[in-house]
UniProtKB/TrEMBL annotation:
It comes from Chitinimonas arctica. Keywords: Signal. Residues 1-17 form the signal peptide. This is Amino acid ABC transporter substrate-binding protein. It comes from the Bacteria. SUPFAM superfamilies: Periplasmic binding protein-like II.
Length: 252
């Protein structure tokens, strides 16, 4: 009769193991976006996710590929998750945001960032919080980034033929663009580099500020529904933790 408790305990362990994968496969853009994803070391997104994985008791596999492909791999279920994605309704066909509904649970974001406009020093290109002024040519943006749609919605001609912030800035300094729209922290870092310092300046106010999320595939959520919620909750908890804030504050 003593076998029954052992059998039940073994069954419980089997169910528990089945409810949590040994490893989660996550993709992210192969273009550097300071400070979130940087070359040669862990950016803050990776730092945050590794802290979350430790608390969750699972391993992470990171795959760095072009962003459009990353989202398509997420849609197919070849990736369990993708980061860091701002909310766009058309991305709901690719995977799920925290909460799993038609709109994300905004309390479960990974980080806050946004986009700002950058112009040649002395240029009269401006932004008043609603419209971009004094632009007769193209404004540059990175291919596949959400700001492209916003710029087009303002009636601006967009050149999204570059993949990196630095390449966009090179087009600007070469006179091929009148301004560029870059993720703010990345843009602020780039214009301090010797190549652009003293030549490019930021326009205020920002074009937009918004949260970015870890998306999970519909296939992953279908298999690990409860654990998916735990993943999103843990990512948010790490974001607000003293440990992560210390790491972010020391990041240069």
């Amino acid at each position: 009769m003593r076998l029954f408790p052992l059998i039940f305990a073994a069954a419980a362990l089997t169910v528990s193991a089945a409810d949590k994968p040994a490893s989660i496969k996550l993709c992210y853009d192969n273009v550097e976006v300071y400070p979130w994803a940087v070359e040669g070391r862990d950016g803050l997104n990776i730092v945050q996710l590794k802290m979350a994985a430790q608390k969750l008791g699972t391993k992470l596999e990171f795959v760095k590929i072009p962003w459009a492909r990353c989202l398509d791999e997420l849609r197919q279920g070849n990736m369990d998750g993708a980061f860091a994605a701002s909310f766009k309704p058309d991305r709901l066909a690719m995977g799920s945001y925290p909460g799993g509904g038609d709109k994300p649970d905004t309390s479960k974001y990974m980080m806050m960032d946004g986009y700002s406009l950058y112009r040649l020093k002395g240029s009269n290109v401006g932004y008043d919080g609603k419209a971009i002024s004094n632009v007769t040519g193209a404004v540059g943006a990175q291919q596949g980034f959400s700001i492209v749609d916003q710029l087009k919605g303002m009636g601006v001609r967009v050149d999204d033929g570059t993949r990196s912030a630095d390449d966009s800035l090179r087009k600007l300094t070469a006179g091929r663009l009148q301004a560029v729209a870059l993720q703010t922290l990345e843009g602020d870092n780039s214009i301090q580099q010797a190549e652009f310092a003293g030549k490019v300046e930021k326009v205020s106010p920002p074009l937009v500020e918004k949260p970015y999320y870890l998306m999970l595939s519909k296939q992953f959520i279908g298999k690990y529904g409860d654990f998916s919620k735990e993943v999103w909750n843990t990512v948010a908890a790490v974001r607000d933790s003293a440990e992560y804030k210390k790491a972010a504050g020391a990041f240069k």
